[in-house]
């Protein structure tokens, strides 16, 4: 799964990306420093892996991952190709979710492409460009489908209605992720692949003084997006970059303690991005490997097995399942089994977050 980091130039995108990933994106104090999108594979922090490692003592531990893309800064007119507009919009289209970085701090030494700090204006600039591109997409589809609807095609009529509602919503300057549909309409809407329909996480980039309690700019953002079906978190990208420069866990922990923080902000960001994508984790645990596997919430046991290998899903027979809390309580698979905490589940089983699973299959 892939999340794209977006925002106006010089709001802290690349600094944040560097903190998230071992891939080092260039970051500098001028617009369009990022031209080609940088890709980083980021581990999802999960304390449950440490618990399983302690009990199983495997040869290796493999966490779940999320791909993060640092996308070039956007300016007014991007929807018409200004700046790196067309490339920027194409990069976003390839992502499943958007991490929108907003500058919520003052610093005279860091230039702002719009001349002053105003996160709400910055948000609207990017929203407008994405909405304009979506308007273009919907207008083309509507023009085409109206011709089919005139012939009496029922499906075309339903599609035309969805397109018209979407068009009106966009013309009002609203993002389409706010729209709610019946199941049949949802399929038609999803087929549009609109930029403003993608789930979004707003990251308020603050200074050190505001990292614990926030500031007025952060509150403005929270108020503005409360009805937008989006998530908001706050962190200081420069602090995150400083933390990543420290070599040992103890050094990082000492630095966090001095700031009064429980954990790096990027840990919260990654977990929130995971939640935004409607993802969850199940585990396989053996002496060779303890591993976290990423699935969607609501996936069945065969679908979860298919993440390991398609043959596991095709030839699925059953799954042996221990809930994480039971595994933690009893300390091993054998003891959980003896306590009656290992269940045998079939094709209809909905996997729960944290399940430890072993699949039986036959191809």
UniProtKB/TrEMBL annotation:
Cofactor(s) named in the record: Mg(2+)
TGS domain segment(s): 278-361
The encoding gene: engD
Coiled coil regions in record: 128-155
The keyword ATP-binding appears for this protein: yes
HAMAP family associated with the record: YchF_OLA1_ATPase
Domain OBG-type G: 1-255
GO cellular component, one term: cytoplasm
Classification lineage: Bacteria, Pseudomonadati, Bacteroidota, Flavobacteriia, Flavobacteriales
CDD domains: TGS_YchF_OLA1 (cd04867), YchF (cd01900)
InterPro entries the UniProt entry points to: ATPase_YchF/OLA1 (IPR004396), Beta-grasp_dom_sf (IPR012675), G_OBG (IPR031167), GTP-bd (IPR006073), P-loop_NTPase (IPR027417), TGS (IPR004095), TGS-like (IPR012676), TGS-like_dom_sf (IPR023192)
Matching PROSITE patterns: G_OBG (PS51710), TGS (PS51880)
Pfam families per record: MMR_HSR1 (PF01926), YchF-GTPase_C (PF06071)
Similarity annotation: Belongs to the TRAFAC class OBG-HflX-like GTPase superfamily. OBG GTPase family. YchF/OLA1 subfamily.
UniProt keyword annotations, A-Z: ATP-binding, Coiled coil, Magnesium, Metal-binding, Nucleotide-binding
Function: ATPase that binds to both the 70S ribosome and the 50S ribosomal subunit in a nucleotide-independent manner.
This protein's record includes keyword Glycoprotein: no
Organism: Candidatus Ornithobacterium hominis
Annotated binding of ATP, by residue: 10-15
Official protein name in the record: Ribosome-binding ATPase YchF
A GO molecular-function annotation: ATP hydrolysis activity
Gene3D superfamilies hit by this protein: 3.10.20.30, P-loop containing nucleotide triphosphate hydrolases, TGS-like domain
């Amino acid at each position: 799964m892939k999340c794209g980091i977006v925002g106006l130039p010089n709001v802290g995108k690349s600094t944040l990306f560097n903190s998230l990933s071992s891939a080092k994106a260039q970051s500098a104090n001028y617009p369009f420093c990022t031209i080609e999108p940088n890709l980083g594979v980021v581990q999802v922090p999960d304390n449950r892996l440490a618990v399983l490692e302690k009990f199983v003592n495997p040869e290796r531990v493999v966490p779940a991952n999320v791909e993060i893309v640092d996308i070039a800064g956007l300016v007014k007119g991007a929807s018409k190709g200004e700046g790196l507009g067309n490339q920027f919009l194409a990069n976003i289209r390839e992502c499943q979710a958007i991490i929108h970085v907003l500058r919520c701090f003052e610093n005279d030494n860091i230039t702002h492409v719009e001349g002053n700090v105003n996160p709400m204006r910055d948000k609207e600039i990017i929203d407008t460009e994405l909405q304009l591109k979506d308007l273009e997409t919907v207008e083309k589809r509507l023009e085409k489908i109206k011709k089919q609807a005139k012939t009496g095609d029922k499906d075309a009529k339903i599609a035309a209605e969805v397109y018209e509602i979407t068009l009106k919503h966009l013309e009002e300057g609203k993002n389409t992720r706010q729209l709610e549909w019946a199941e049949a309409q949802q399929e038609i809407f999803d087929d549009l692949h609109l930029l403003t329909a993608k789930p979004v996480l707003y990251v308020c980039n603050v200074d050190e003084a505001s990292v614990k309690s926030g500031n007025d700019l952060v509150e403005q953002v929270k108020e503005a997006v409360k009805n937008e079906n989006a998530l908001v978190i706050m962190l200081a990208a420069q602090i995150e970059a400083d933390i990543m420069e420290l070599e040992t866990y103890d050094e990082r922990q000492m630095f966090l303690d001095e700031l009064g923080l429980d954990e790096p902000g990027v840990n919260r960001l990654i977990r929130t991005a995971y939640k935004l994508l409607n993802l969850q984790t199940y585990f396989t645990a053996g002496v060779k490997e303890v591993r976290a596997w990423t699935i969607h919430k609501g996936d069945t046991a065969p679908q979860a097995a298919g993440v390991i290998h398609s043959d596991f899903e095709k030839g699925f027979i059953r799954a042996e399942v221990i809930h994480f809390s039971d595994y933690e309580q009893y300390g091993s698979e054998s003891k959980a089994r003896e306590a009656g905490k290992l269940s045998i589940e079939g094709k209809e089983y909905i996997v729960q977050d944290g399940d430890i699973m072993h699949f039986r299959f036959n191809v």
